[in-house]
Amino acid sequence: QVGKFFTTEQLNELRDAVGAKCGDMMFFIAGPEKIAATAMGQLRLEVARIKGLRDPKKREFVWITEFPMFEYSDTEGRYMAMHHPFTNPLPEHLDMMLGGNLKDCNAEAYDLVLNGVEIGGGSIRIHNPEVQEKVFRLLGLSEEQVKEKFGFFVDAFKYGAPPHGGLAFGLDRVVATMEGEESIRDFIAFPKNTSASSPMDQCPSEVDLQQLQDIHISVQMPKAAK
């Protein structure tokens, strides 16, 4: 019981903060912020499903903006780009980023959400080569790594890059959400089955040996058991 970790005064303050009344329930989840937020989000959706609070006939849209520019990776032991390394920081957060405060820096990134489901996302891109260079350095990428991974993209800055951005839709997700379906399986143009095969176009198919040689791929089949 979570109540044993709080004093009566603290519980009363929590009750008043959320406007809870007799018969209401407050949920608590403890853990790392990202895990706790994800778990609480799923719990919220499940409670809404059980209580019949979601009306599939309604079309509720919302823009989610100002996503964090970076997120810390426990696996890598460093900050990573949350969207991608070409996302522009909020103009008012540029100095913060240049000063090395990656935790509180937000980006000009956005998602379009329909009935709680992300149906599109995008961002404004960095068009200042000096800012782009700084972002690469903050992400721990060396000059050699930048050239290897993004050389063609960085070279484009030499010819001038105007402010630009975009939004990418997942059309199968849009249609499935508007139809009130949880799965997009029936709305994918070329659906794949559980074995990752696409019956409509007979994919995957055999690859000609010459094609493999052209791209320097060698296939070694396991020897049959004797």
Number of discrete domains: 2
- What is the number of helical segments per DSSP (H or I, 4+ residues)? 7
Distance between the termini: 60 Å
Uncertain ranges = none
* H and E string: HHEEEHEEHHEHH
Strand order of the largest sheet: 1-4-5-6
Characterization of the model:
With 226 residues, the protein is an alpha+beta fold. Helix content is 31%, strand content 14%. It has 7 helices and 6 strands; from the N terminus they run ααβββαββααβαα. The strands form 2 sheets. The chain has a 4-stranded antiparallel sheet. A two-stranded antiparallel sheet has the order 2-3. The longest helix is centred in the first third of the chain and has 18 residues. The chain is extended. The protein starts with 7 loop residues before the first helix and ends in a 12-residue tail after the last helix. The mean pLDDT is 87.
Task: Provide a quick synopsis of the model.
This protein has 226 residues and is α+β, with helices and mostly antiparallel strands. It has helices at 8-18, 33-50, 94-98, 129-138, 143-155, 171-178, 209-214; strands at 61-65, 70-73, 78-81, 109-114, 117-124, 165-169.
List strands and helices in order, with pairings.
Blueprint: H1 8-18, H2 33-50, E1 61-65, E2 70-73, E3 78-81, H3 94-98, E4 109-114, E5 117-124, H4 129-138, H5 143-155, E6 165-169, H6 171-178, H7 209-214
Antiparallel strand pairs: 1-4, 2-3, 4-5, 5-6
List keywords for this structure.
BirA Bifunctional Protein, domain 2; alpha+beta; 7 helices; 6 strands; two-stranded antiparallel sheet; 226 residues; 2 domains; single chain; 4-stranded antiparallel β-sheet; extended
